[in-house]
């Protein structure tokens, strides 16, 4: 996992207009997607279309937007002790989709989403471009959380409809709604708090005693036993929480939560991350090696070892675990990125070529990943491939709002790449788009 940190990119964030920060982590995203997939199928929604977004925020919140985007606060994942609680929340959120509640807000969302998603895309690229390694694999970026709260505020009738649909989806896949009930009871305890102290989920998803009573009655009369989730789901989720605590809590607190007397795999995982964050590379790698011996086919353990060694300044030692991680999980773009960065840092000709291959694989999975394009341009430039390097840099510049640079690099690529090649045609498109944006900028300044 490589990570970058970025704060309040959207600008003007104040305590009254707090920024939302996103993080990337392949293991957490994949685990949440695995938990969501059966619910999506029960809702007759396309599981493959779901995009998971992890919000770095200790408060409880979750919401969906059109385009099958699911946002989950890390605070919710860390507070929920069992995956059934998260599944209950997701089932409810998918009920908002099937109930048409998202569509009802589409006009309002359409009016604001240009700015929202522009800040998302530009923030992701800019954050990754910093290359800092503070917490998680991927990106943190700023958007206005107050804007999102206003967009995603539902009525009590819509909440009741989403509850009913969510309960149906849970029943369909044989998962008890007790997890959803537990989450609702946590929210119920906030009803007497002043609004400013309530979690965002409470503010956007109004709670009523009738809603809680409805879910209580459903659980009481359900024939589905509680606590019957597959062991592999519980195990995967325990690792997610250990990873979140390891990266987001102070290391000392993590070591208290997961003491040396706890020999469980999640506990060792959390401690390894805590030692890494304390710059105790020897201790961290020793624990990670234990995890790899226990589960040699786990790509995320190899990824973590690669990250620890790379950020300790040993790119040569980081490459083998990264290579194994991408061999085990080749379609995970963040893993390919970490591997490529280590190869580029080592800097041999074969390394640059292998890095370019890894980045091209990452871009097949996430073609809008601006930082992937930036790293690809570095690899291509070091291979003295000027045309492809200029093209990759043009893609990066366009995605990060550097319109003058996009025009320059796309023009250079168009001159150097073969006539009629896909890359040259795309470079010409980028040049035209960059010129269009620059013209708009000029008009805006003249007003």
What does this structure look like?
The protein is mainly alpha-helical and 447 residues long. The protein has a domain at 19-221. The chain contains 22 helices and 6 strands. It has helices at 26-42, 74-79, 83-98, 101-104, 106-130, 145-151, 156-172, 178-188, 200-204, 209-221, 231-248, 251-257, 265-277, 281-294, 299-311, 315-328, 333-346, 349-365, 370-382, 386-399, 403-416, 422-446, and strands at residues 19-20, 22-23, 51-55, 62-65, 69-73, 143-144. A 4-stranded mixed β-sheet has the order 2-3-5-4. A two-stranded antiparallel ribbon has the order 1-6. A hairpin with a 3-residue loop joins strand 4 and strand 5. The longest helix is centred in the first third of the chain and has 25 residues, at 106-130. It is globular. It starts with 18 loop residues before the first strand and ends with a helix.
Spatial shape: globular
Please write the string of helix (H) and strand (E) elements.
Answer: EEHEEEHHHHEHHHHHHHHHHHHHHHHH
Give the N-to-C terminal Cα separation: 45 Å
How much helical structure, as a percent, in the residues?
55-70%
Instruction: Determine the mean pLDDT.
Output: 85
Question: What characterizes the major β-sheet?
Answer: 4 strands, mixed
| Strand content range | under 5%
Defining traits:
four-stranded mixed β-sheet, two-stranded antiparallel sheet, 22 helices, 6 strands, disordered N terminus
